Amino acid sequence: YALFLEVLRRFQAAGLLKELILIGSWCQHFYRSYFTGLRYTPTIRTRDIDFLVPVPFRFKNKVDVEELLRDEGFVVTFSGGAGYMKLMHPDLIVEFLVPEKGKGSDRPYPLPQLSMNAQPLRFLDYLLQNTIRIEAEGLKINVPHPAAFALHKLIISARRTKEEKLVKDRKEALAILTALVRKGDAGEIRKMFEKMPTGWRKKVLDALTETDNVEIMRILK
Question: What is the pLDDT of residue 162?
Answer without folding.
Answer: 87
